[in-house]
Design brief:
This protein is an all-alpha fold. 49% of the residues lie in helices and 0% in strands. Helix 1 crosses helix 4 and helix 3 packs across helix 4.
């Protein structure tokens, strides 16, 4: 049995813009200031829960933000 592993993001697809726009959508929903697009590149990769824990005030549940993102 053979297994194949693909690194899609940045290799076969360029999803950065879509990921960042989805993060922006979530931040807009919560009326949180968005980082500049160039700065947002570092948001791609870490788990979403961690990303929203760092971006949102403690009064907003990161789990709820992940649901809104999705």
């Amino acid at each position: 049995m053979a297994y194949y592993i693909f690194d899609l993001d940045g290799t076969l697809t360029h999803s950065a813009k879509g990921i960042i726009n989805s993060i922006y959508y979530t931040l807009d929903y919560y009326q949180i200031e968005k980082p500049k697009f160039e700065e947002s590149q570092q948001l791609i990769g870490p788990p979403l829960l961690n990303t929203f824990q760092n971006l949102l005030p403690s009064s907003i549940s990161p789990k709820d933000a992940v649901k809104k993102y999705r």
